Amino acid sequence: MARALLGSCALPCCGTRRERVVGTKTGMKEGQVGMAAEMALSHRAPREVLSEAELEEVAQRKPPAKPSVRLRKIRCTGSAAKSLLFRFLPFLYWLPRYPVKDWLLGDITSGFSVGIMHLPQGLAYALLAGLPPVTGLYSSFYPVFLYFFFGTSRHNSVGPFAVISVMIGSLTESLLPSENFLESVNGSNATVNEALRDAARVELVATVTVLTGIFQVALGLLQFGFVVTYLSDPLVRGYTTAASVHVLVSQLKNVFGVSVGEYSGPLSLFETVIEICKKLPQTNVGTLVTAIIAMVAIFIVKELNHKFAAKLPMPIPIELITIIISTGISYGVNLNDKFGISVVGTIPSGLKPPVVPNFSYFGQVAGNAFAIAVVGYAICISLGKIFALKHGYKVDSNQELIALGLCNFLGGFFQCFAISCSMSRSLVQETTGGNSQVAGVLSSLVILVTILKIGELFYDLPKAILAAIIIINLKGMFKQFSDLSMLWKSNRVDLMVWIVTFVATLLLNLDIGLAASVAFGLLTVIFRTQLPHYSVLGRISNTDVYRDVAEYEMAQEVPGVKIFRSSCTLYFANVELYADALKKKSGINVDRLIQKKKKALKKLKKQQKKAEKEKAKRKKNTEDGPGVAVIELSAGESSAPSEPTLRSLGLPQPSFHAVILDFSSVSFVDTVSIKILKNIFRDFRDIEVDVFIASCPGDGCCRLSHGSNLSVGP
């Protein structure tokens, strides 16, 4: 009878390498090297292979801690309260330790540089979200100021971001399209009441922002920062690239100076493009020329900033310069009246009191708010981890989720729209000497001054300038198309995730496209676990290294032993495929051999029954004859009959006597896997092959021994 050996380290698997001793220190004596080599060789001495039961006896596993039914008393000690306070208000920890002499000058320079970037981007991204420009300034002030108290990243520049803005814009256009605010003028012509529309959209977006913040804070408090792990890097990059296409298309109407309808839902992007193409003959030449000149100027200066970044004390604020110059020209020449170039209009000065959001929208926008919450956090934490790794500090993922949520939740009461982190602003904050969240506070103060005193001066700012700023800032996003060639060479599955995410987001719009992309990404994980790489391992001569015999010429199988390995864990979805692959890789038709054995045993039983009948008949005839006792002696009569073997049945025998299942890649074992493994042990036992398990995780061994009634022995 075959027995299962559940050895936790019985097999030196793929990760094992031949031990070597190398003298690394200069001047190391030969005697020391020789001694080290001798010790290494002694460690390679062969040892007895232990079963799981013997290993447990030798290693003496510690008893598991018994869960206490009693509720632990929570005491509010000073240290516990201080730790909790530092966790939720990180600035209380780092601000008293702030090195003023080393960091303050760099933070001032960085804060001013980022602040003057916030101004044009805030105005532009408000336009992208379908909101009045002043809301972009609010979103560049309140959340940025709040992040100082709650954030843990020293270089992230939070605030308006193009992808989040276009997600909000698609929502406002679908729920509150301009057609809902048409008013008749003189009983004939109908125009859009922009003041009423903007007020309704601000109320809607404020509600979405508050709900987004609630989702983020709740996920952070529940320690669900890991939720972003379901958005793989190819998925995020494909999604943001597709979102940048949405952004580009949404700004074409401001570049060409034409009015188009507001579309939402699947294929809305293509409907917008088709209508813009139809209205190209109506292009406002002045608007187009203004946009082209602005784009060329901004692009050239940005390239110079990048090229001479090491020599410039701070990047040339070309976006701010463009806004100031264009506003001055527009005011002096009166571009709106003479050439019909659309301008921003009134930007109210001063701060507004908080307003309670309209809770009746919650049911309609819950899905969109959750999508915005996840995407915004994914972008923010990915940037934060990049800077943290570069500068040697740690970013708390759950606290970042809470910080972003509080910025959105509180900002929603002050007419802000949802925010995230901007790559361009974060890079400027880092390269201009920013060292802490102080830079963010200083940049918010620049916006505060603009809101209080300067904002109303931008009345004549052409919208084409804001569209040019948005489009040029998409350059970094469009560079992500280079991922295609890299993924083609490295990982085709990730390439498929990127392409499907990109196409789905273009076709289905941003909200449905994100859901479809996440679903497809999870399907690829399931697909990969269902089709892992199965291999038979062999030992490379003169080493302790085992490799796939199909891939390495020098890898030779151990005589009489099949070492089988799967590249992923076992669970209900792939364990049957594992069993089929094992039987196929063994080189014999296990199921057919078992069937032949059953037929041979059935035939043997018939022969035995026939022999017993004949024996009984002879015995009866003997009893009916004269009184002569005939005693038949048999050598094996006193012992139990031996079980028929394949050889005795005349069947072919396998070329191996043992199978070792390498479980080094198995992280858990479920009940379905245990049942199938039990069948594997039974089938190979029927063909006289022992099955052993090597490198099995501790809890897996316990589940196997209890769940499948396998004998654990030497």
TrEMBL record:
Pfam families associated with the record: STAS, Sulfate_transp
Subcellular location as annotated: Membrane
Membrane-topology annotation of the record: Multi-pass membrane protein
Coiled coil: 590-624
InterPro entries in UniProt: SLC26A/SulP_dom (IPR011547), SLC26A/SulP_fam (IPR001902), STAS_dom (IPR002645), STAS_dom_sf (IPR036513)
Domain (STAS): residue spans on this chain: 551-695
Species per Swiss-Prot/TrEMBL record: Lepidothrix coronata (blue-crowned manakin)
Matching PROSITE patterns: STAS
Alphabetical UniProt keywords: Coiled coil, Membrane, Transmembrane, Transmembrane helix
GO cellular component: membrane
Transmembrane annotation, as ranges: 123-150, 204-231, 285-304, 316-333, 369-389, 401-425, 437-454, 498-527
Protein name per UniProt: Solute carrier family 26 member 6 isoform X3
Domain of life: Eukaryota
Signal sequence extent: none
Biological processes annotated in GO: transmembrane transport
CDD domains (alphabetical): STAS_SulP_like_sulfate_transporter
